[in-house]
Amino acid sequence: MRYIIENEEIRIEVESLGAELKSMQDKKTKVDYMWCADPEYYQRTSPNLFPIVGGLRDKKYRYAGREYEMGQHGFVRDMEWSVETKSDCELSFFVEANEETLQIYPFRFAIEIAYALSGRKLNVTWKITNRDTKKMYYSFGGHPCFICPIHGEADKTGYGYDFHKEGNLRFYRNDGETGLFLREEHTMELENGRIRFTPDFFDTSTYILTGNETQQISLFDPQGNNYVTVSFDAPMAGLWSAEGKNAPYAAIEPWYGRCDDIDFAGTIEERAGEMELEAGETFASSYEIAV
User: Fold this and answer.
1) How large a percentage of the chain has pLDDT more than 90?
2) Which of 235, 214, 217, 234 is nearest to 226 (CA)?
3) Is there a contact between 54 and 260 (Cβ–Cβ < 8 Å)?
4) Residues near 19 by beta carbon (within 8 Å), at least 6 away in sequence
5) CB-based contact 73:15 (threshold 8 Å)
């Protein structure tokens, strides 16, 4: 079911399946900043990722002497969430473990995701609770995809990312065949903190930022104007658009965790960037989209 909240500036729509943000529209110009989920390129708009970000080696992980199987980005993006609260400018959703999730992820969890509008900004807050009697291991993140180009150009050449930082940017890639992490460090040369897209900018793989390289990323148009900015607390981020398609969107993804190393052979506790929560504890984090 689709839910709507709005203020004088912005109208958003969120789908209860996955608690997924589907639209963020300027009420005056009618411009929608979110990707339309055209399946020709990518059938989602802003999925929520839990209990893993990215993929597992061979789609499997080990915990407490047992092997489990799980697909890319986990499973809550495909679960039906219940609405907890709704007002004119705020909306929150809730999901929890059930007998089906326990078969592939042996931890009892509860998650609340809240969307709150203020002016031209949308705050997205995660609250993750360990309802189990043992320590819980997990990773999570956002995956918002934004329309690009936004002014009706033929493609997104000349658009780009503004990283709001001095110097160059360190990043890593994932393997094109397996989607797993490659440990070779790369450098993105920036001009005044920015990089412009070329037609093949996204053809190789996802750009994976680790180690708090930046915590604010904008998309800008060919005239150099930033039109959407994502600010986040997360230590990692993914930059992505469908490979080899010059697709008309670009993602800015705040992450707590990432895909397995390509040669990873450990347990879930040993995964790079893995989060952990003691029994009964809650972890809260948020990111903001400003347009």
Assistant:
1) 98
2) 217
3) yes
4) 48, 76, 81, 93, 95, 113
5) no
Confidence bin at 177 (pLDDT 50/70/90)? confident
187 CB burial (10 A radius; 0-12, 13-18, 19+): exposed
DSSP H or E segment with residue 101: helix 99-102
Tell me the H-state helices in 109-228. Answer: none
In angstroms, the Cα distances linking 18 to 81, 141, 234 are 6, 13, 20
Residue 223 vs residue 177, higher pLDDT: 223
Residue 199 CA: distances (Å) to CA of 85, 207, 243: 43, 16, 11
Q: Can the peptide bond before residue 51 be classed as cis, meaning omega within 30 degrees of 0?
A: yes
Q: What is the mean pLDDT of the chain?
A: 97
DSSP 18: T
Answer positive or negative: Cα dihedral of 47, 51, 57, 58.
negative
Q: CB burial class (10 A; 0-12, 13-18, 19+) of residue 123?
A: middle
The label of the residue with tokens 């809650």 reads 282
pLDDT at 167 over 90: yes
Quick: pLDDT tens for 126-152.
Answer: 999 999 999 999 999 999 999 999 999
